[in-house]
Amino acid sequence: MLRVLIPIDRARNSLKAEQYALDLHQKTPLEVTLLNVINEKILSDRGIGPNLMEQLKEGQRSHAARVLADVVKPFIKAGIQVEQRIEYGLPGPTICRVAAEEKFDLVLIAEAGLSEAGQIRRGSVVDDVAHTCRVPVTLVKHQV
Q1: Are the CB atoms for 67 and 36 separated by under 8 Å?
Q2: Nearest to 60 by CA among 40, 41, 89, 44
Q3: Which pTM does this prediction carry?
């Protein structure tokens, strides 16, 4: 059985990767982990007090759990063994760390929804994963 890690973001840019995994399961059995990484760095160094920081982190965690609860449904319906997971950290390095440490066979990620200029200005988790993971990465393209 192929162990696949699928990063899920809150904007659901991952829809193409999710569908690709469902289609791939028709050809080869999959075991899937859906991973949402909450980027704490965005909130750090902003003068936010500890109590408010905890509330913000809990709000992010609750939202991530709701997103994952929606994503998991078609995988369960397809009979795919699926796990939902939330981690904290920088998304690219966290995805690659989880993939390597837990010996996934493949990271399945959809291409970024940013324009080329947006990727240059803001960076891209997809580029980070594609270039730094030690586990094979399949980049699922959005249709043009």
Answers
A1: yes
A2: 40
A3: 0.88
